[in-house]
Amino acid sequence: MSKRARIIYNPTSGREAIRRDLVDILNVYEQAGYETSAFATTAAPNSALNEARRAAQAGFDLLVAAGGDGTINEVVNGIAPLEKRPMLAIIPAGTTNDYARALRIPREDPLESAKVVLQGKSALLDVGRANDTYFINIAAGGSISELTYSVPSKLKTMYGYLAYVVKGAELITQVKPMHLHVKYDDGEYNGIASMFFVALTNSVGGFESIVPDAQLDDGKFTLLIVKTTKLPEIITLITEVLNGGRHIDDPNLVYVKTEHIEIKPTNDMQVMINLDGEYGGDAPVIFDNFQQHIRMVANVDDMPPESFSQVL
């Protein structure tokens, strides 16, 4: 029997670039040996999630998530709870495309990103779960992490990543302290924080040096807690990130590897959780890591060898 692929694409992502290249993209997966069809997501809730689950249960061998980080996250949530999960490929067409950046998938040309499948290489990668919702790149909380909710879609389409930079510069002057109790494998943290990150890859908000020692299949998160709300100290941390990842030893930062995390506010402040750039509910939240849970097409040859323990 021939293998089957289903492309689940957001027709409005990336100035509709995927829709323009769709025939050529279909041909790429046909060339890779897949009988390929496509599904355009709609404005209905969980459109990509529901189609991903349907296609997985129908026995498709490969799902292609084509769109921004939100579309990719929905497809992951459609298949992650299943016992039998198809292989996953991604075609990035959003604003930050963090996960594609981590996997060295071309981010400027949908057709070139599709062609990665022709290399025939993949890896089993970790997936995180926050309470009942899965994520594949980053979970975060704090004022800066909320900027993805406050940048209008029209501005993201028109100005791309610049829209986030402008909004982030505005929000960094309005950082609010969170009072948190955080438990992780080898310890806990009680105190003030301005933000926290629970990372699976090295790419966070377009920066590739926030987690310089990321491994994508080791079964562990990288937990970062920024313990200061003082603007000069936060700017120092950002400068250290940009200067080769020197922030990991900064006394204003908790930086640990852990399989399990529990975070809860110790006051009445609402702490919204950002999962792969989308709102994922409020704390308290429990994070669990599912090691090597989804087989993912990746541009393995362009990635650091320490990113994986094995390549398929």
Q: Note the beta-strand portion.
A: 25-35%
Pick out the low-confidence regions. Answer: 154-169
CATH topology of the largest domain: Tumour Suppressor Smad4
Q: Under the CATH scheme, which class of the largest domain? A: Mainly Beta
Q: What is the second-level CATH architecture of the largest domain?
A: Sandwich
SSE run: EHEHEHEHHEEEHHHEEEEHEEEEE
Q: Radius of gyration in whole Å, from Cα?
A: 19 Å
Number of helices: 9
Q: Which class of secondary structure composition applies to the elements?
A: alpha+beta
Largest sheet: 6 strands, antiparallel
Q: Any idea how many domains?
A: 2
Distance between the termini: 21 Å
What value does the average pLDDT take?
88
Based on Cα principal axes, name the global outline: globular
Q: Care to count the β-strands?
A: 16
- The percentage helix is 25-40%
Sequence of strands across the biggest β-sheet:
6-5-16-13-8-9
Describe this structure in words.
This protein is an alpha+beta fold and 312 residues long. It has two domains: 118 residues, Probable inorganic polyphosphate/atp-NAD kinase, domain 1 (Rossmann fold, 3-Layer(aba) Sandwich), CATH 3.40.50; 156 residues, Tumour Suppressor Smad4 (Sandwich), CATH 2.60.200.40. 26% of the residues lie in helices and 33% in strands. It contains nine helices and 16 strands. It has a six-stranded antiparallel β-sheet with strand order 6-5-16-13-8-9, with helices on one face. Strands 12-11-10-7-14-15 form a six-stranded antiparallel β-sheet. A four-stranded parallel β-sheet has the order 2-1-3-4, with helices on both faces. Strand 5 and strand 6 form a beta hairpin. Helix 2 crosses helix 3 and helix 7 crosses helix 8. The longest helix has 15 residues. The chain is globular and about 55 Å long. The two termini are 21 Å apart. About 5% of the residues have low confidence.
